[in-house]
Design goal:
The chain folds into three domains: 37 residues, no CATH class; 352 residues, no CATH class; 132 residues, Jelly Rolls (Sandwich), CATH 2.60.120. Helices cover 46% and strands 15% of the residues. Strands 1, 3, 4, 6, 9 and 11 form a six-stranded mixed beta sheet that branches. The chain has a five-stranded antiparallel beta sheet with strand order 2-5-10-7-8, with no helix packed on it. A hairpin with a 2-residue loop joins strand 3 and strand 4. Helix 7 crosses helix 8. The longest helix has 26 residues.
Length: 533
């Protein structure tokens, strides 16, 4: 395409959308969807967005165990792995849930989006899993529309605030791990919008639903119509708050009757004022200034500081008559008491727990130039969002014939540690001897050519790649990568390749793993059996 054609097409797009700002809004949505598509796998769909770890394998409910889903190796997974199992049995009638979910009475409080995923999946386990994985994506798109009420695509300030919310670390973390925070924020935003429009009933019902999604969302009831200067109206407001909280209270009563009280009702997430924040800030400051390099340390410090800017905005700018100020200060108050479990990690769960404060901050920060540095500082959690959209990776790629490669699956079997990555390099370590399982799902033989890099952990090792008794490749490997190259014909079914070396794995430095051979950037080229490579 020539430069003139590109300019013409760009001009047509601008005329259709109306302004460069609208193009930027659309581009943000396209970028988000592009990030999500990276998580799709033809065998497991979008289930890698749920973060199910293999350490849960023995305790997973049957419906999850028997349905295709992505599993992260050597990982306990994350909270979404519990909520998807609740979505498979949203009436809590499966006794397997007691073993599958840590602290079931506590998790089961947040039931709304489990019901939603079950309904979207029509009760079919494989569909429910995909619905649960994509529920946050749908909520993100819906939130993008709802936010146009406050941030229409008319100027750069609105674009900044709109994208700062949608790409805040808390929202992105919720999407990446299929959590309840993003959908709950959608309901909070929608409820407050309806309250602003004078639709009190719709607003109250929506906030009640938000509470069924996540109990802390009920703090947003501080945005209900309330005149603090008229004490005679306080009783009516208190009654409204009680009615909004009633569905959650009723559901919690059902859960308590069914399972008894929670061993940990979540009180461990709270501590003395500012104790948790100060501990996290001190650690983030030391790590960001320490000898170890890593962008994640700087992003974590930026996130901790950004949340402080948001909270201070509400504490120092007293506006109790404003609906959004009351919402923001309620969550800022909760932030003071958050303890280590909420703050720990890189960057941690605090950004998603405090999402309504982030929304209120962007709605209320004045739109003058002198407030722009405060607006930017309060939205620095975006710096950490990039770390949430790294899709699961393997140390191998299947290339070649577009039709045949759909029939070939490469799966590390026994003797491997989890996949690792740095820049363009992807690899796995073996623990000693290892097996690589290659499946040909077609009904005909397929020729493959394999190449990659192999290196030893420290001292030289003899490495052989065997197919049964047949030697496919063998050589001495050292700690400098050596080219690994061989070919074979795969019959229909499963072929096992054995990687055999002459010594067991060994520990190096502080790494607790037994390491033997590092196999990196493995490529499997697929072609018809009569072809050669």
């Amino acid at each position: 395409m020539s430069a003139v054609e590109r300019r013409v097409r760009g001009g047509v797009l601008l005329r259709l959308l109306g302004s460069p700002v609208r193009v930027a809004y659309l581009a943000a949505v396209v970028i988000f969807l592009g990030c999500i598509t990276q998580f799709y796998n033809r065998h497991t769909g979008f289930s890698s967005l749920i973060s199910i770890g293999d350490l849960l394998s023995s305790s997973k409910v049957t419906a999850l165990r028997e349905s295709p889903h992505h599993v992260y190796e050597s990982s306990p997974g994350y909270d979404g792995a519990y909520y998807v199992q609740l979505a498979l049995y949203p009436t809590l009638d499966n006794p397997e849930l007691l073993k599958a979910i840590d602290n079931l009475p506590y998790r089961a409080k947040r039931i709304l989006f489990c019901w939603t995923a079950w309904a979207l999946g029509l009760g079919q386990p494989a569909w429910v899993i995909q619905a649960h994985a994509l529920l946050n994506v749908l909520s993100w798109l819906a939130l993008a529309v709802v936010l146009l009420h406050w941030f229409p695509p008319t100027n750069g300030q609105n674009l900044l605030r709109w994208t700062a919310i949608l790409f805040s670390h808390g929202v992105c973390m919720s999407v990446r791990h299929s959590l309840v925070d993003g959908p709950s924020l959608l309901l909070v935003a929608l409820g407050l919008r309806w309250l602003e429009d004078g639709r009190r009933g719709a607003g109250a019902v929506t906030l009640a639903l938000a509470g069924l999604g996540k109990e802390t969302s009920l703090l947003a009831t501080s945005g209900l119509d309330f005149d603090w200067r008229a004490p005679r109206t306080w009783a009516r407001t208190a009654l409204t708050v009680a009615l909004v909280a009633l569905p959650l209270a009723a559901w919690m009563t059902y859960v308590r009757v069914k399972f008894g009280p929670a061993e940990d009702p979540g009180l461990g997430n709270f501590t003395y004022p500012l104790a948790g924040y100060w501990e996290r800030f001190s650690l983030a400051w030391r790590e960001a200034r320490g000898p170890e390099e890593g962008a994640i340390y700087g992003a974590t410090l930026a996130t901790v500081l950004a949340l402080a800017v948001q909270a201070l905005f509400f504490v120092l700018r007293w506006r109790p008559a404003e609906r959004w100020w009351r919402v923001g200060v309620a969550f800022a108050g909760m932030m003071l008491f958050l303890s280590t479990p909420v703050w720990e990690g890189y960057p941690g769960a605090s950004t998603r727990v405090l999402l309504p404060m982030t929304l209120a901050f962007n709605v209320l920060v004045p739109r003058t130039g002198r407030w722009l540095p405060i607006l930017l500082a309060g939205n620095l959690t975006v710096a950490a969002s990039v770390f949430e959209f790294s899709p699961p990776h393997e140390f191998h790629d299947v290339r070649g014939d577009a039709t045949l490669r759909q029939s070939v699956r490469v799966v590390p079997s026994t003797g491997w540690h989890g996949p690792e990555r740095h820049l363009k390099d992807r690899w796995r370590w073996t623990t000693g001897d290892a097996e690589l399982k290659i499946t040909n799902d077609s009904d005909q033989p397929i020729r493959i050519a394999v190449r990659g890099k192999a290196s030893a952990v420290t001292e030289p090792r003899q490495l052989r790649v065997m197919q049964g008794e047949r030697l496919l490749w063998g050589d001495t490997v050292v700690n400098v990568p050596k080219e690994l190259r061989f070919g074979l014909v795969l019959p229909p079914g499963v072929t096992i390749l054995h990687l055999v070396n002459d010594r067991p794995g060994e520990k190096v430095g502080t790494d607790p793993r037994d390491l033997a051979i590092r196999v990196a950037n493995l490529e499997v080229f697929v072609s018809p059996p009569g072809a050669s490579r």
